[in-house]
Design goal:
about 475 residues, alpha+beta, Transferase(Phosphotransferase), domain 1, two-stranded antiparallel ribbon, globular
Amino acid sequence: MAGVFDIELHDGDAANQDESDDDVIDNREEEYNHAATVSAILESDNLERVQLSEQNVNPGQEKAGPQDFELCKILGEGGYGKVFQVRKVTGKDKGSIFAMKVLRKASIIRNQKDTAHTKAERNILEAVKHPFIVNLMYAFQTGGKLYLILEYLCGGELFTYLDREGIFLEDTACFYLSEIILALQHLHNQGIIYRDLKPENILLDAEGHVKLTDFGLCKEHIQEGTVTHTFCGTIEYMAPEILTRSGHGKAVDWWSLGALMFDMLTGMPPFTGDDRRKTIEKILRGKLSLPQYLTPDARDLIRKLLKRQVVQRLGSGPEDAEQIKNHNFFKHINWQDVIARKLDPPFKPSLKSADDTSQFDEQFTATVPVDSPVESTLSESANMIFQGFTYVAPSVLEEMYAQPKVVNARSPRRGLLNNTGFGAAASLHGFSSPRTMDVHLRPSLDLQQQHRQHMMGPNTIEDTEMVDLGQLSNRL
């Protein structure tokens, strides 16, 4: 069973503190009035007194809270909260459909890692704006809960389409890989490593274009030449340098891209075993076997992305994604057309309306949506941990947020739509997601279902087990 791992290694004590006087304020004693008191200042006639209110504090800024959203459907549920489909009932974007992720503060602050990941995800979503990355529209909080309002991606997750087809044709894989590459390149340019690329974390919008989601395992502030040692990701897509804890940088995302490409074209990740330990052994030492039906360009790209030696891996140099974009596999791709979303998606979701939930599991969507009350409220000091969480997207302040375009094209596999798994809600919000497997389409599915289970929140594998896995990888 695959899992999401996260262990931060510390390299010892910090360097000696800077003892310079650069931060010392040099004040002139004669200019400071020792006799002045706060009371005397407040009683002065020279002060203008203004009553503070919502009207004169940050005037013109769009305010948002739970009361501004109508619950429509439950899209998923995890250990820390729920994911709802909601409709905005106030403001200039009234009537727009969003996905609302609700997290219980009391559950998050129990673990320092979970707190850090939650804050990092919110910060990254605010900072990163890209055609192939999910948009954060609002973030706000109450005494006991955190709320992230994201664009509603009704096309579902790429895993669902891959599961139905079994494998993709190379032209289909090329389309998705090209959009994913541009998303990863943008993250890398911002000093961010994604670290959890897999079909479950790739959503499709209403037109069928890619949107990366779930930024809980991202690492910020990674520049060229710097490395981090966090043991995290989903086993089948984790780069060897993460498993060996030898320090990793942005090149881990290109290994994951190679594993994803292999999965798209063969129906399985490149290295899988009967359990986690055997999977790790194969990632570190196993032979890469490529089917003969793949074209020479596809085989060459996969080999170059799955180089265990980082310096030999395509994309590991300062050119980053440009090395991959220039590979012969993408010789027919016009990258300007890709970023402009001019390429025709191979799969276009069959949707009835902008609030269509057919890509989500009926066990959730058929349930009455209720945002359950908080059992306890955090102390003021605990709430300070989430200071600065509130956010309103600039697009909301500038103009009405555009409704998702609905494509009415009929899918030849439409009959299968109602049988999809929890997919999109899970990957959009980092919750665990059961898969719906078809034994006739993808090989070794019982084994695959064990390997690729995405575990988050309370289901995260215990630190002791993760340490054992790390010790194993160091011995190999």
